């Protein structure tokens, strides 16, 4: 994922959900980025280029022990 995309996603997550959310590049992956709340890992944002329309999918696992 390009640095410009990560900056836009970071601003979107901060504005929409919480100012403490951080979007970071993933090591050795260029099709996704990691999302954190402070130091805690929340999930991954993936690029979806299907049918020529670019969109982003946020995937977050919720463990049973966290409920």
Characterization of the model:
The protein has 67 residues and is an alpha+beta fold. It has one helix and four strands. Strand 1 (21-25) and strand 2 form a beta hairpin. The longest helix is centred in the N-terminal third of the chain and has 14 residues, at 3-16. The termini are far apart. The model has no long low-confidence stretch (mean pLDDT 94). Pfam families: DUF3126. This is DUF3126 family protein.
How many structural domains?
1
Order of helices and strands: HEEEE
Strand order of the largest sheet: 1-2-3-4
Taking all Cα atoms into account, the compactness measure Rg is 12 Å
What would you call the shape?
globular
Query: What is the structural class?
Result: alpha+beta
Helix content: 10-25%
């Amino acid at each position: 994922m390009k640095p410009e995309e990560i900056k836009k996603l970071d601003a979107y997550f901060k504005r929409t959900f919480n100012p403490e959310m951080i979007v970071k590049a993933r090591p050795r992956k260029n099709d996704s980025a990691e999302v954190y709340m402070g130091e805690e890992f929340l999930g991954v944002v993936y690029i979806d280029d299907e049918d020529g329309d670019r969109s982003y999918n946020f995937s977050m696992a919720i463990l049973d022990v966290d409920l």
